[in-house]
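Lecture 7 notes: from sequence to structure.
We start with the chain below.
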Amino acid sequence: MKMSNVDNSYLSGMRTLLYKLGPNLSRGIKLGFRDKWAVKQTSFMGLRIRLRDLCQRQSKILQPQLKQFPERNLCFFNIAGGAATDSINTLILLQESEPELLRSRKIEINILDIDTYGPNFAKRCIDVLKQPGEHFYGQDIALNIIHYDWSQPDALLKMCLDRSDCIQLFSSEGGLFEYGLDSDIIDNLNYFYTNSPADARVTGSLIFDRANVNSGYLGFTEFIGVQIRYLGLKGLQRILTETSWALEESHEIDTIYILFSLKKA
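Predicted structure tokens for the same chain:
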């Protein structure tokens, strides 16, 4: 856990996963003082709700596309994806509700991240979930780890073009929209737009603006030292004027998180 942060200005994929697990499921893991304190805080119930709600939203976006286009493969682009818990659990929801939608279809989860610990953990999770008796047994699922700096998004152009016939979902839970500069968010959205299909979607999470965010959360992030962006929905809408994406849906969680989806305008 200590080694999984590239620096202390953001929550790494593995630390985020730890806080999602909570105090019961994280028993037995050796933790530093801050992580021991943080994992017990009710503030992090929001992280678990964020993951649950985003996975439900993503599965609802993908279900009609998978039904309409049984011949198309499925491709996730998970920016700053860490352990890719949103992509993996979205697939689990689809598998549990309508398993026939995933059969005979190639599925890719592409984790684009500067970190390696979270993505390598995700890869091991997929390997386990493909074993007999597990959720993805018999499924053609590949998880690719791609070193990616969101300030240099050129690589997205070729990746999207190479998969232009796939159903594509670009997601960033607790990543780009919570830490990236306006210019980084705009460039990544525009690069994804260029070579993605007409029905491509973007999903993500962001934090309320500083004036309206839960005061307990504000104090907590300052205590653990992460440099969160309090973008807010108005901030996202301002950014979208510099792109060709339109806000499709959004909803709030405990005056902390805003989940959203975007479609091509």
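Points to note: The mean pLDDT is 90. Strands lie at 74-79, 106-113, 140-147, 167-172, 201-207, 245-253, 257-264.
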